[in-house]
């Protein structure tokens, strides 16, 4: 049943009609539990609250699978405004973004122009930028963009997904760029031709890439809500005397909040991924796919408590 629900929500996540409707009608159905609001001031307020609890943040202006140049340019401008707001408000926050929101499905030139503008602003205001990883179809192109930009900028990192067969090889190839990588299990619906269909294999590969990246000396963000992966990371770090400034844990806003606070108390660096903006629908559907129990929150949002 879980698998059926997961596939259903992942199918819904790419529905253009519902995406448009969601933008028009604003945050609904309990999505506010996972999204910090629709505007930069909403995001600033949330980042400040998290910073006060000792947590770092990465903010994400929601947007994906954009197919018009004007929208991609607007998304890039929003990112630059967010970078300025981080600096003006003295916040401890990085920025995360998706290549399809920068125009990946339109033209490579547009993406590179948008990204260079954002990274220049990031450099000027001291804000680090992470390129999220999207579906398999875009993985190769995203990594190529990362490599080109990494040769020009220090303030850029990206994400690799444990569910893909190709990831270990990608990491070996990326090593020469000393990449700052966020390691995740992977959130999209992929074919067994390209991704491990069984959770156990995904978890095994996740452990493999956590160890691999921690031991090669590059900065590692372990992004998961899974206690088994968190404990495994702690074990490797302890066994190999990896200093606290070489890795961090990351979780999504609104998920396992007490666990986030515990990790801070234990002395680990915790970063929370905070999405904001009106294009919340696809993000929200992927969160429901990950944990159908979250559907209870949707039902409360629809029918009241
Ligand atoms: P998983 O979903 O297997 O959950 C494992 C366990 O965690 C559960 O069994 C439960 O014990 C606990 N758990 C999970 N959710 C819980 C909840 N709501 N309440 C209580 N317990 C809960 N993906 C991607 O493809 N590209 C990307 O760029 C990113 N970026 C990203 C950034 C950050 C900061 C995070 C945390 C995640 C991503 N992801 C992502 C999403 C990622 O790929 C993955 O889909 C989710 O993190 C879910 O996988 P977990 O590792 O959390 O474990």
Automatic annotation (TrEMBL):
<dbReference type="InterPro" id="IPR008219">
    <property type="entry name" value="PRODH_bac_arc"/>
</dbReference>
<dbReference type="InterPro" id="IPR002872">
    <property type="entry name" value="Proline_DH_dom"/>
</dbReference>
<keyword id="KW-0547">Nucleotide-binding</keyword>
<feature type="domain" description="Proline dehydrogenase">
    <location>
        <begin position="43"/>
        <end position="298"/>
    </location>
</feature>
<keyword id="KW-0274">FAD</keyword>
<dbReference type="InterPro" id="IPR029041">
    <property type="entry name" value="FAD-linked_oxidoreductase-like"/>
</dbReference>
<keyword id="KW-0285">Flavoprotein</keyword>
<protein>
    <recommendedName>
        <fullName>proline dehydrogenase</fullName>
        <ecNumber>1.5.5.2</ecNumber>
    </recommendedName>
</protein>
<keyword id="KW-0642">Proline metabolism</keyword>
<comment type="pathway">
    <text>Amino-acid degradation; L-proline degradation into L-glutamate; L-glutamate from L-proline: step 1/2.</text>
</comment>
<dbReference type="Pfam" id="PF01619">
    <property type="entry name" value="Pro_dh"/>
</dbReference>
<dbReference type="InterPro" id="IPR015659">
    <property type="entry name" value="Proline_oxidase"/>
</dbReference>
<keyword id="KW-0560">Oxidoreductase</keyword>
